[in-house]
Amino acid sequence: MKIAVLPGDGIGTEIVAEAVKVLKALDLKFELETAPVGGAAYEAAGHPLPESTLSLAKSADAILFGAVGDWKYDKLDRPLRPEQAILGLRKALGLFANFRPAICYEQLTHASSLKPELVAGLDILIIRELTGDIYFGQPRGRRTAADGHFPGAEEAFDTMRYSRPEIERIARVAFEAARKRSKRVTSVDKANVLETFQLWKDVVTEVHQDYPDVALDHMYVDNAAMQLVKAPKAFDVIVTGNMFGDILSDEASMLTGSIGMLPSASLNDKKQGLYEPSHGSAPDIAGKGVANPLATILSAAMMLRFSLGQAEAADRIEAAVKKVLAQGLRTPDIYSEGTTKVGTVQMGDAVVNALR
Ligand code: IPM
Ligand code: MG
């Protein structure tokens, strides 16, 4: 089992180190190989996703990814910015299926900005299509407007597009995932305005015929954004496009109290996957030893389950995380009175001890 370890920028290196520590504490054999990515790779090799990092990622069974980005790179040309590394990996490896669970842990119910009764026991799964939509659609660019409200003015444009097979395959992923849960899928679209999402809705409805045991409903994205804060527990699996999924998954993360707790998985059709915390590189707290490593540790658990066929080890890690929370250990992002504040390394050590 070969794992490419790509820590990236900001808190990426600190949190990935803890996840690696947890992996090494399991009695499994892995080959771990580390490479720079994002701003770190730009500094080292002049490109956020150097050829050597990309080929390592391609050759691995799974990728453990930290985070990329720093304000100091905001002025670079777009192809050289750290974010291009993650977009490039998604595209090059065909990682079209992004799983973003939002689980509210019992001990953290009060960390949510929503009333505890709204989020207690919350367990939803957002499945975001990750290689299509307006993120990758061509053409895109800047030009002088030929028409519109201000002909002759500078304008910018992007292209939102989805093909039938792209929608079919992500719909199947969602229905299959729902079968292992409470068998409900909400497909989120904007079919009332956009052609792209009318096709989305039509295709999801067609694919649903193969999954009569799963309930399907459709919701416009604006309403979904509202329902997520009004009655989040009414959802089970949400399936949506790349951009809506980007926005809704950040919104959903806050229901759980801290984005520092949320893992994610991005898979291709060979079950090769990239595993990363849902949060970013947090340059403001980088190097201070206070970042929450649990999302990355939980991402390593997802990696064991989805790409490495080690479901039992994944269960063990997840149980260990619950145990450290029950012990009252908290990084600052999830700290509340009466609990014990710990740093990144102490939290990782506690998970390792809980595994034993
Ligand atoms: C995410 C991030 C990325 C995205 C950025 C960093 C390109 O926000 O993974 O949600 O927009 O997909
Ligand atoms: Mg995002």
Describe the structure.
This protein is of the alpha/beta class. The chain has two domains: 1-96 and 268-356, Isopropylmalate Dehydrogenase; 101-261, 3-Layer(aba) Sandwich (Isopropylmalate Dehydrogenase). Helices cover 39% and strands 19% of the residues. The protein is built from twelve helices and 14 strands. The chain has helices spanning 12-25, 39-45, 51-59, 83-93, 116-119, 164-179, 195-208, 221-230, 242-255, 294-306, 311-326, 344-355; strands spanning 2-8, 31-34, 62-67, 97-103, 123-129, 141-144, 154-157, 184-189, 215-220, 237-240, 263-267, 273-277, 329-330, 340-341. The protein has a ten-stranded mixed beta sheet with strand order 2-1-3-12-11-4-5-10-8-9, with helices on both faces. Strands 6-7 form a two-stranded antiparallel sheet. A two-stranded parallel sheet has the order 13-14. Helix 1 links the parallel strand 1 and strand 2. The chain is globular. The model has no long low-confidence stretch (mean pLDDT 96). The structure holds 3-isopropylmalic acid (IPM) and magnesium ion. 3-isopropylmalic acid is lined by residues 83, 86-87, 246.
